[in-house]
Write a sequence for this structure.
């Protein structure tokens, strides 16, 4: 297989946080032909102003590199300005997308691999932008039972703080991602359930590999041998389960959420649980009235609307100043 070029699919592994994007990253980065770094964020953040890097004299790579290397997440990739400049000297980028490809290619080259992908969960909200920038982009949207997502968020120092906030966040991210996916179509968008991935990793990965035109390799299931390396960037303490083989029930809302938390979650996001085929624990309420009731309950039971809005918009902020 030859090196990555615009003709090769550029996979973006996206989803609501705590849904399994890190597991997907570990699996695909363990493939001998694909490098998937920790979260980028710069593709979406800088991509909103992509045209600003173009000037009459051509692409302003100096400004691009200034902005890129000023982002903490990009710094964790270990790429030096000199090597990026050398790569851009060898193949001068004509635009923002070409410059981004160059950055990913440099990362993949250092890993000794010809292909690359991206794992940034919140790009589930940036798919229209990224799809427009990269015709070769292919999106893998991983979806997990939202109650397990909310439970997982309660165990980490970032993201939603309560089951109600978790329901709002999960419902928004998954609903918007699926709506964009329908517009992109099956050639560019694929959904995968977290539960299917851990129950049948080989079969599920085989289907995803075919989607991004990559042959499945057994090394993808041996990511646990690289767990410490994979956890050395990003948020290491939030992904300790990478030391385990795919395991069902690492989070189980049935035993970890109180009855009140389950009720609040299902009042807010029960319609999406139904749509996705996840069984409810509480009696179903009908349509928009049930969602409005849930949102009202969320506010009355401790969701500070202003603080929640800030956290849920970004989805990556720390809790209580941590």
């Amino acid at each position: 297989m030859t090196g990555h070029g615009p003709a090769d699919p550029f996979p973006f592994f996206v989803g609501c946080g705590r849904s399994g994007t890190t597991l997907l990253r570990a699996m695909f980065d363990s493939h001998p032909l694909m490098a998937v770094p920790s979260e980028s964020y710069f593709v979406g953040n800088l991509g909103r102003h992509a045209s600003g890097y173009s000037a009459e004299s051509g692409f302003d790579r100096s400004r691009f590199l200034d902005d890129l290397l000023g982002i903490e997440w990009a710094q964790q990739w270990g790429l030096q300005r000199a090597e990026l400049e050398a790569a851009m000297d060898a193949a001068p980028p004509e635009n923002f997308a070409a410059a981004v490809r160059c950055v990913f290619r440099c990362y993949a080259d250092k890993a000794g691999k010809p292909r690359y992908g991206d794992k940034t969960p919140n790009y589930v909200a940036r798919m229209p932008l990224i799809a427009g920038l990269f015709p070769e982009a292919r999106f893998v949207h991983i979806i997990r039972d939202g109650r397990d997502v909310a439970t997982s968020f309660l165990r980490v120092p970032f993201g939603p703080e309560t089951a109600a906030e978790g329901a709002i966040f999960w419902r928004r991210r998954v609903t918007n991602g699926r709506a964009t996916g329908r517009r992109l179509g099956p050639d560019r968008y694929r959904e995968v359930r977290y539960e299917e991935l851990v129950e049948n990793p080989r079969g599920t990965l085989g289907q995803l590999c075919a989607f991004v035109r990559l042959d499945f390799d057994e090394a993808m299931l041996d990511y646990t041998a690289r767990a410490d390396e994979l956890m050395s960037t990003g948020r290491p303490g939030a992904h300790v389960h990478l030391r385990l083989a795919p395991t069902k029930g690492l989070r189980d809302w049935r035993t970890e959420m109180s009855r009140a938390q389950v009720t609040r979650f299902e009042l807010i996001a029960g319609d999406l649980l139904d749509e996705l085929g996840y069984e409810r624990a509480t009696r179903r309420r009908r349509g928009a009235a049930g969602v409005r009731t849930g949102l009202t309950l969320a506010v009355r039971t401790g969701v500070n609307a202003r603080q929640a809005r800030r956290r849920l918009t970004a989805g990556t902020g720390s809790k209580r100043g941590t």
